[in-house]
Amino acid sequence: MLFVRRAAIHSACRSPVVRTLSHRYTGIKALSFRAPQEPVVIGEEVDVECTAVAFGGRGVCKFPGGFVILCERAVPGEKVHARITAIKKGGRYAEAVKIQRLRPTPYHVNAPCPHFDRCGGCTWLDVAYDQQLAFKRDQVVDVMTRIARINDADRIVNAISPSQQRLRYRNKMEFAFAQVGDNSSGRPAFGLRPAGDHTGLVEVFTSGCVLQQVVADKVLARCAAHLHAMADVSALLPVFNRRTGCGVLRSLTLRTAPLAGRCSGETAVMVIIAAALDRQGKETKKAFAALAADLATIDCVQSVVHERVGDNNENQITVLHGPATISITLRGVVFALSVKSFFQTNTKQAEILVESVEEACALTGENTETILDLFCGVGTFGLCLASKARHVYGCEIVPEAVEDAKRNAVANRIENATFWQADLAQLSESMLCADSKSMSKSIVFGKDVVRPDVVIVDPARSGMDVTLVAILRSLGIPRIVYVSCNPATQARDVALLCDVSDNTQSGDLLAKYRLISCIPVDLFPHTPHVENIVVLERVPSTRGYEVYS
């Protein structure tokens, strides 16, 4: 192995240093190894062989002595030419980007997209789908073993549910605006970011995006044509600069939903343009209105919405054309979605997700159980399960989503569902009240005193706040169904829920849980992301009684 002096590496007049590696790597735990001196520097180029997938989808390679490189888009079995981009954790490992494939992986397939090599929208579009599923399940097993400390995770983690639709499956896509060309006179363009690059842009309007609906591609093409044809577009509609706060155009978001009889393909599109217009002149506002009006003439466009980018970052919504919501039907329930409301981006696979959550709840079907649906959004899980429950109580921080959930309940004639707006990270033990007839507790929301039989939690990627974990353990709910798009933070919370500690500031006994099932569902084909459902069951107390009876 040839090691080159670092002074030579940093020399601007020399070619990049290239090293060849071909060493076996058998586990992600090696990331904790600390090499005495990192053998690479930022900007150095190496030829590496990928031997594993780290959580998040980056390929893992290992230097002699245990030093690890995490390489974007490298796949096990593949040999790549890569550039070191960062040294992390005080020299514990390095990050890199793939520049060129030197030898394909055995799982290689031809990507059905001309933008794939540059675009960051799909990571595994060139990997056989069955192998994508294997990689994702392996990641779930890994985090449940390492972080949740589950000894038999490989047995508990089910086979992953494959996506029924692998292309054109997304009902929502967001495209960033960026300035293309000279800094002073470059035209505004939009597209997806390159892998690992938060400032670059890949324009995809020429051939569309294989992740979104075909009708959405028509909107991209029209928007691009309008901007190209506009005189003085760089001056009238400059790209918004987050650092300076200057400019106008920030992002273009397209939401799609089946709507029979409305347009070709029976799909409607909601167009959301995030733009800063408050401090702009009359001509800029007129140019923006013309763009919105042009997009509204497309036969598939149901509505055009302006998301105002304000100085205080509290964006306001103005509907320019059409209704303020778009509707998606799931298991017979119609969900009207406003601009800020979250909904699963893979509609067909959301059916599988809801079905899996229902099975995980183990409802009797006799309308006897009370469900507490935390981080409920527009009420997706709660409203779909309401027909089999005594009552559903949902809680969500986004006020627009709560209003959507309430309207959806009324529109679908669901009378046994109640929704509150609250920040679940701010809940406190003072909201709990003891049951005089048992060791259980209830939780108070406004005038409602709720004693749930099942709780569904579906937090953001950051997972649950430790205070909420403590409250759930204090409640002693018999069954917790935890849905997450980030199995790593989910595994962290599972470890806390299964903790043997029973000490609190008040001295009350905390319930302990055990993981009985883990159900990964693929909602995001061709990416490393995976949705995961864990089912936790309360363990009987060692003090001779159950915390909740």
Automatic annotation (TrEMBL):
The keyword Methyltransferase applies. Residues 39-98 form the TRAM domain. It comes from the Eukaryota. InterPro entries: MeTrfase_TrmA_AS (IPR030390), MeTrfase_TrmA_CS (IPR030391), NA-bd_OB-fold (IPR012340), SAM-dependent_MTases_sf (IPR029063), TRAM_dom (IPR002792), U5_MeTrfase_fam (IPR010280). Pfam families: tRNA_U5-meth_tr (PF05958). Keywords: Methyltransferase, S-adenosyl-L-methionine, Transferase. The active site is at C485, C485 (nucleophile). One of its GO terms (molecular function) is RNA methyltransferase activity. The keyword Methyltransferase applies. S-adenosyl-L-methionine binds at Q344, F375, E396, D458. Belongs to the class I-like SAM-binding methyltransferase superfamily. RNA M5U methyltransferase family. PANTHER family: RNA M5U METHYLTRANSFERASE (PTHR11061), TRNA (URACIL(54)-C(5))-METHYLTRANSFERASE (PTHR11061:SF30). This is Predicted protein.
